[in-house]
Amino acid sequence: MAVQQDELTEGEGPAMGSTTALRIARQYADAVSAKDFATVTGLFADDIVWHQPGDNRFFGSHRGTAAIGESAA
Question: Distance between CA 56 and CA 48 in Å, rounded?
Fold first, then answer.
């Protein structure tokens, strides 16, 4: 995952600056690499809807952090 530092600035997007966005992106990438799905889902809003395309064990739509966590386990 690559986020350019100048892509997000204060007042744009979900009210976070580029430093915050980069920190969260790095946290996400590190947690996925470590298969630390509790940390991954902790970065999501409680009402998230995750849609995973393809033919794999994560395929489909998952609603809420608990459902995403269950599909990753």
Answer: 20
